[in-house]
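User: For my dataset I need records formatted as: sequence, then structure tokens, nothing else. Please produce one.
Assistant:
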Amino acid sequence: MSKVYFASARAIKWKYDDSMPGKLEKLLKEINISNYFEPKEWVAVKTHFGSEGAHRIVRPVFLRKVVEALKNIGAKPFVTDTVRIMGLDYLEVASYNGINHLSVGAPVIIADGLYGHDNIMVTSGEILGEIAVASVIYDVPAMVVCTHVKGHIQAGYGGAIKNVAMGGVSASHRDCGWKCGRGAMHTIGEGQLFWDKEKCELCYQCMEICPLEVIKFVNDEMKWDSDKCWRCGRCDRVCQSGALSLPFDDERFMRSLAEAAKAVLGTFKEKKVIYINFLTEIQPECDCMPIADVPVIQDQGILISDDIVSIEQASIDMLLKAAPLPQSAPEEKAIVKGDDILFKLSEKQYWLQIEEAEKLGLGSRKYELIEN
């Protein structure tokens, strides 16, 4: 049974040790990171840089505490993510959201290059076949996965599995394009975008949100560059008239997340990856969207483990016990305490990704919770 260490977000005493940064320091000592990482060893601190407008990411102060803990044992950390928009723009967004060398105390780099084409094909599973793992993630010997737990329009729940699966994989491959990248998880078949002209209100939200600018309108007709598209699904998500649709299969998507996570984690030796889940500012959307809604659940705290399945199950178990916050998305859907808040918001069977990850041997849903 794997151990999952937990520190509550509540601060009862007026002492630094009772603060969230102080508690994170204690958790990192509790898990004894010297058991996982060695002096002079390069360690990737994998997180999500967010978007312009989406600010509810893992705060820089927490990333800095992880970096400092790694430096204290002599390791050489850097903070990283894969491109969600083109690399130079994404680094600017990271800095805009407070993540830079000065704030986190370590270099901040793009794991798959400025164009998102620096990757290595890795055998995945029966759904994906092969997947393009970011070259830096592939090459680095160790990793700390820092995840902002949240809802997600397609995954239902966005935790460590999604962070590793979609964040450790490139959007596309320079030869086989989106079919070898994270786009293969998003879609089924050929992944063709369908536009219903009769429903379209010409609001242009799809065009404005596209990270690659592959959608254009000419004489009120939508034009879409299928070859350049990453199949990220943002256009489908923001279309409020139902004029756009991208083929999608919930169960396939959840299983493919687990497959991709296994491919990424398979590039590391045993016990060279640890996971930190931040159950804070739990909003209903992914951090890649251009907005951040108000939190739907009160901050719960920080979890840390070396078992990705256990930490995900522990996170879910905590969220299931939480009450929805007033004046947030759950209130609009009459969601009450005792309901599965994230499922009610997305109507996605998010637990399938965790069950599949366990089936693939990535860890166990049985865990021992150690509270600090």
